[in-house]
Specification:
This protein is mostly helical. The protein is built from 11 helices and 2 strands. Strands 1-2 form a two-stranded antiparallel sheet.
Amino acid sequence: MQKCTFCSHRLSADLAPACTTSCPTGALRFGDFEPERAPAPIPGFYRDHIEPAIHIKPLRRFGPPAFAGGHVGPVNAGAGPVNTVATITRKISLRSEWSLLVFTTIVPILVALVASAKAPPLLVPVMGLIAMGLSAAHLGKPARAYRAILNWRRSWLSREILLFPAFVGLSLLPSARPLTAAVGFVTLLAMDQVYRLSTNRRRGELHSASVLLTGLFLTGVFGQWLWLAVPVWLLKLGLYLRRHHRYPIASQPLFFSRIAFGFVLPVAAYTLYPLAIAFVLVGELIDRVEFYLELDFAQPSTQMRADLERAMV
C-alpha cells in the first residue's frame, strides 16, 4: 500500500487520475475548483454550498507542492499538456533543524572526550544538559516529550532518548568511565539509526557524517591515537568523496570548505595540536550541515517528485 500521488505517471501523459476516469457516477474530478465550472444542479437537491468534499491543505508551516509555471488545472480532453515539473517545498530544512544539528554535533564530541579521558570536570554534564534542552526545543510540544520513550522496544529514537541521559548521568562517576564511553557509543549508534529512513540514502549505506564514525574519529584525535584516528579519517574521506560523486550537491563552497577544514588543514597544522583540533571540528560541523541539507524523508510530495522524474526520463 502506498499513499496517493494523484497518478503522477498519468498526469505526465496528459491523463486524468485513474479514480476520476473510472468513477461511474462522475463524482470525482481533478483540478483547481472553479465555482463557475461546477456541475449543473441536480433537480430536487439544494445547490447552496456545493464544494469539493476533500481539500488538500499544507501541514504546519510548510506549503503544498508548487508546480513551475502555475498550478495544475483541470485535466480535460483537448487541454494543453500538464506541467509536471514540480518544485517541492522541503519538509526538512536546515533552518527548522538547527537545534538537532547542534545536538548531533555536540554529542559525539562529548562521547569522544569521555572515551579519550580528556573531558574536563563537569563539562560533559553541563554540555549534556544543554544538548538535551536543544533536542527538546525541536519538539512541537516539549511537555509531551516523555511519551517518546514509551516505544523503546522498537524505536531507535526512544532508545536514544533513554541512552543519552544515562550517558550524562554516568559521566558524573569518574570510576565508571569505560561504561560511560560504551553507553555513549551505543547512543551514537542509536542516533545514526534514527536517520536510516532518509530517501536519499540507500538502506544500510554508511554516511561520512555518521555520528558514530565522528565519535570514533574524535576519540582518536583527542587521545592522539593515530592508530584509530587515521583509519577512520581515511574512511570518512572516502565516503565523502564517493557521496559527492554519486549525489553531487549544488553548494560547491561547502564541498571545498569541508575538504579544506576536514582533511587538508588538520594535516598541515598537525604540529599545532589545538589548531588542528579546531580545523577538525569545523570540518565535522560542515559535514553535518551537508547531511541535514540532504535529508529528505519519504512523504507524498517527495514520492510524487520521484515518480515524475522517473516518468520524464
